[in-house]
Target: Cytochrome b5
Amino acid sequence: MADKTFTVTELSQFDGQNGQPAYVAIDGTVYDVSAVDAWDAGQHHGNVAGKNLSAAILKSPHGKGVLNKLPKVGILAE
Model:
């Protein structure tokens, strides 16, 4: 995992828009979802990249199992 620590404000810049990568935070870890087709344009089933989606993933049909396939790019400072 990268050593980068993201603030909430920094994370919000990685929303998958205007050429930016799409990052999401889950349980303090920041993941890159840019290469996931389902995250086209930084959006996936009403969720938006650049945010802490820890609560949202618990409601998803795939749960946290999908996280093992994603690159970790840092941690979220709280």
